Amino acid sequence: MATNLLKGKRGIIFGALNEESIAWKTALMAHEEGAEFVLSNAPIALRMGKIKELGEACNAEVIAADATSVEDLENLFNKASEILGGKIDFVLHSIGMSPNVRKGKTYGDLNYDWFHKTLDISAMSFHKVLQTAEKLDVMNEWGSIVALSYIAAQRSFSHYADMADAKALLESVARGYGARFAAKKVRVNTISQSPTVTTAGQGITGFDDFFNFADQLSPLGNAPSEECAKYILSLFSDYTRYVTMQNLMHDGGFSTCGITEEMMETLAKARQK
Ligand code: NAI
């Protein structure tokens, strides 16, 4: 049902590791919608993941870049505009990793070197992407830059540990840089996505319970990654030109729901046991 929504648009998509990745689904859909783009991921992900397969499916070149390295990002932006034949219209930052979460460290027992890494990879890298793009002047007017967040930025979710702080910083960067980039008519937003079954998602202790809880507490249910991809494309399209500096909830209603019938039934069943 493609409608050429992104025909003529050029972009960079960070963070496709495997078929489950939100960035993977976004790339496939962006290709169907007529966009041309470069795929990027950390060098280690290029070795271990399946991004080359995706590159073939989307007719997209793959360029390695550690998103914490400004040098890598400069190289990526320069090469991408060369390959794509002009300035960039959209960027997806779909990057997140916390060594503390991976190793099951609780919020009261964080390793601070790892905490630095969490912030650098999951949040400061977004600032680096934005600053590099602005300094190199590679963004087209009415361009759109999107990163992915989670509601732990606003509410406490114990197992999310230092990723919650990273997401709060990420959302703040979108506001701060969105105000700045508006001078060049570039918009900057974050999408706060439901729990999603991906490599990053499943790295969180108790992810399945977490996932089911959110699903029951979302009137529409958890938003699937394919739907997240569609939402991302809408933000890359010309239909959302004046949406900027926002954290946009894509969560089936979770963030504004008190309780659902489904959750009431679950609680009643548990009481009867
Ligand atoms: P994923 O594991 O498929 O994607 C994470 C990506 O980050 C991977 O491709 C990984 O290689 C990349 N990455 C890690 N370190 C990097 C570095 N130094 N440089 C460049 N890339 C690096 O998982 P998913 O779920 O698709 O994650 C995408 C985004 O969505 C992340 O920001 C995540 O926090 C966010 N998100 C995920 C949710 C979930 O439940 N899965 C919920 C809400 C937001």
TrEMBL record:
GO BP terms, alphabetized: fatty acid biosynthetic process
Catalysed reactions, semicolon-separated: a 2,3-saturated acyl-[ACP] + NAD(+) = a (2E)-enoyl-[ACP] + NADH + H(+)
Residues annotated as the enzyme's active site: Y150, Y160
Keywords: Fatty acid biosynthesis, Fatty acid metabolism, Lipid biosynthesis, Lipid metabolism, NAD, Oxidoreductase
Top-level lineage group: Bacteria
Gene3D superfamilies: NAD(P)-binding Rossmann-like Domain
SUPFAM superfamilies on file: NAD(P)-binding Rossmann-fold domains
Amino-acid positions noted as binding NAD(+) in the UniProt annotation, renumbered to this chain: G15, S21, I22, I95, K167
GO-annotated molecular function: enoyl-[acyl-carrier-protein] reductase (NADH) activity
Pathway: Lipid metabolism; fatty acid biosynthesis
Enzyme Commission (EC) number: 1.3.1.9
Statement: the UniProt record of this protein carries the keyword Membrane: no
Family assignment from sequence similarity: Belongs to the short-chain dehydrogenases/reductases (SDR) family. FabI subfamily.
This protein's name: Enoyl-[acyl-carrier-protein] reductase [NADH]
